[in-house]
Amino acid sequence: MTTTIRPAAPQDIAELRQLYFEVYGHGYPVALGSDPTEMHRLITDPHSHWLIARRTDTGELAGSVVVQTDPGNRVGKLVGLAVHPRQRQCGLAGRLTGAVTADALAAGTLDSIHTTVRMVTQAPQRVVARNGYRPLGLLPNAADVSGCETLALFACHAEGVLERRERVTVVPRAVMPLLDAAEESIGIPCAAVLPADATDLDAAPPLPGGGAGTPPGGLLTAPARPATRTPIEVISAPGFVRRRFRELFPDPAGAYSPLRTPNTVLTTPDGAFEIYADLDPAASSCALVAVHPYPAAAARALDSLMTALTRAGADYVETLVPLADTAGLHAFLAAGFVPSASYPAMRRVGDRFHDYVVLSRTDRQIDFRTTAVSPLVQPYLNAYLTTWASTYLPHHEVVL
């Protein structure tokens, strides 16, 4: 069987919806595979790259893949890779991945592209790895597809980007297993990084954007977990939330969360703070985007935030924190978040690139028994288990 790969067009939408149904059934939690309006927007967006494959003999739609981009932050995400069940075992997934990645990077507007892959088998991990993507970590319980699933995070970078990473010398001790895993898996060096406890915050180097203060999205303190709960109100009004978010954060640098648009705001009855989040009940997940008026205002309410988000349908919550933001990392660690993935050279500031860490927390039981972990990803699983155990098990029960 031979196929032809070309850009998707609006007239392909009906067949694309059928393709995603054939591959995922009704459980696909991404709008680009089911919502015609969102599909049309992406296909006609000049900054998106959507490729399809058709059989040359019958014209039948055989596969699809998309790279969504955030041109302002120069970051892309590969999503929606699907190959029709009758067209598998012929390398089409790899061809689509390679073609859309090359197409997106050739535009010169991206510094990196990342993707999350399911781990029901090792095949998706091998497909992206063969096309230049490096494993960056695990996201346990990150999606509800066919039940609660763990995803693996991979990324590839444009030429020369990794060589211009800003050096970080001090990180919280709990982040060290993750960085050691990155060095073991993909050779990202961290030998010069020293561990820091919550009392060592003054040792942190300057943060992205310059200066010694907390970067956008960071937290200023590392509080102990509170004994009392903070009342949290959840406002799910996407249009209102987007308008207010743009009013409060007119500068994109004020809330760094590429490819995330908040649709929910969490606040206290007295309005002491507003936490903007991208909540996806269909996938049972949520990403924290920004805090107003300043990040430290919500530092002691992170436990209460998790309770509110669980009630709103999110069993998995994640956030992005600069690796250089020692105080911010400590704050989320104190609230039970676990370092899940590292993202080297994610953010460009001037001519230098800054590393970020994905911290996640899930209040659903994690079950790795059916997770297919490739050798490249295994170090991250070991690191996650080590950090999770030190976070949630009494010290006398932890055996290393």
TrEMBL record:
* Record domain N-acetyltransferase: where: 3-152
PROSITE patterns assigned to the protein according to its UniProt record, in alphabetical order? GNAT
Keywords, sorted A to Z: Acyltransferase, Transferase
One of the Pfam families matching this protein, by short name: Acetyltransf_1
Q: Which domain of life is it from?
A: Bacteria
Among InterPro entries, the record links this protein to:
Acyl_CoA_acyltransferase (IPR016181), Bact_Acetyltransf (IPR050832), GNAT_dom (IPR000182)
Name of this protein: N-acetyltransferase domain-containing protein
Q: What is the lineage of its organism?
A: Bacteria, Bacillati, Actinomycetota, Actinomycetes, Kitasatosporales
